[in-house]
Amino acid sequence: MQRAWKRAVLGTTVAIAALMAPMVATSSAAPAATTAVAYTPKAGPIGQHPTATGAQSSPIRRAILDNIANTPRSQTIRVVTWNLDDQGITAALIRAHQRGVHVQVLVWDRNCSSATAALRRAVGAAGDASFFKCIKHSARGPEGKGQLHQKSFTFSRTGTANHVSVVTSYNPTDHANKNQYNVAFQFVSNQTMHDDLKALFQQQQADRPRPARCQTAAPNDGRLFQHFFTNFGVMAYPLDCIAEDPLLTRLRTIPNPGQSVIRVATSGFTNERARRIAEELVRLRRAGASVKVMHTAGAGPVVRGILDRGGVSRLDTQTCGGAPANDVSFNHSKMLLVSLVSGGTRGYRSWLGSDNMADSSIHSDELMVQVTQPAHYQALTEFFEFTWKREAAQC
Predict the structure, then answer these.
(1) Same domain, 202 and 292
(2) Cα–Cα–Cα angle for 87, 365, 263, nearest 5°?
(3) Enclosing domain of residue 246
(4) Which residues of 230-254 are buried (b: 16+ CB within 10 A; e: fewer)?
(5) Does the N-terminal peptide bond of residue 238 adopt cis geometry, omega within 30 degrees of 0?
(6) Which of 134, 211, 366, 387 has the smallest C-beta neighbourhood within 10 Å, fewest atoms?
(7) What is the pLDDT of residues 195-223, one digit of tens each?
(8) What whole-number distance in Å separates Cα of residue 62 and Cα of residue 116?
(9) How many whole angstroms separate alpha carbon 279 and alpha carbon 206?
């Protein structure tokens, strides 16, 4: 039986079945012009799991399809993704282009397969308004050291809302729809977020290696990186020195560890960067924090050993205690969820996006967003625990 959980929307918590009810009033089966009710995208977190069926299945995918279907002529859709083989989404993008929407798509070069051929033919390779580009170089790191791993979808207007952005761990692929747990956050009427992602898109579009450097910006410094505004934040990779890894900085600056609860969800979790993160999680656990880590077979033996010896609760969602990798379902979400006490007051911090917490992310295009609303933290925590429970039951 599927468990009900709750989703936060702009500070209001609403009950839904399984993981997500549709985020909108209209169906993605037809553009808004043919429906009786105006389409209005809703802000908030979205959790998608591979065992939901019917109206509750694939809510991240459905949010993307609804946004595409309701983007009017002369508006712009920008897609940045590591992989794209979902033919329903590619067909929706083609229809949007045909009705006069500016459709701009960036996909990592090694995943520009035959599945993207129809979309590439439809929008062209270098049009003024619409185009599809296969990106060889990380826009935020030196040549040959990174890849385009970010997953984001921005809409200058869709339905009744301007400046809608979806930041997610979800690649629009059949594999993701059938096998993966993923999370997303949809920002609505947030021009700063939209414009920051547009500026990053323009750097990525150039497909030229850029000098790698540590990005250590102060809050409200003006653009991207660790740029905070209205309780949201954006962090773009990479760094050229792990010592300034913002994820490590977050962990190292958690006050009062004995009163903290820390949850980590990742897919890849290996090499030097992961070792440092694991050691920091063990330090917090020994200082009294409650720490849980959920990963896939991508976690290396060194990292697993550090966590196990350090008393950190750990779940491999793919190998189930040493069995061969199980692709029936597994965690693909990337989250850091922290409940902490500072100055006598409990606060909540949530980060989600594409970062695998591994060396591969250091020079790649990765994107994480920060959300501070307690209701959103609660919704993401419930999804984390839902995933943990469902995957632990397979072992």
Answers:
(1) no
(2) 90
(3) 227-392
(4) eebbbbbbbbeebeebbbbebbeeb
(5) yes
(6) 211
(7) 888 988 988 898 987 655 444 444 433 33
(8) 19
(9) 38
Angle at 60 between CA 150 and CA 281, to 5 degrees: 55
- Per-residue pLDDT tens over the stretch 223-273: 333 333 333 445 444 434 444 677 888 899 999 999 999 999 999 898 888
Nearest in space to 62 (alpha carbons), one of 31, 24, 96, 10: 24
Residue with tokens 């079945």: 17
CA–CA gap between residue 158 and residue 167 (Å, rounded): 16
Q: What band does 328 get if pLDDT is binned at 50, 70 and 90?
A: confident
Eight-class DSSP state of 227: E
């993981």: which residue's tokens? 19
What gap in Å lies between CA 49 and CA 19, rounded to an integer?
7
Q: 121 CB contacts (<8 Å, ≥6 apart)?
A: none
Please indicate, yes or no, if residue 216 is contained in any of the structural domains: no
- Confidence category of residue 23, pLDDT binned at 50, 70, 90: very low
Tokens of 342: 């500072």
Pair 194, 243 in one domain: no
Phi, psi of 95 (to 5 degrees): -60, -40
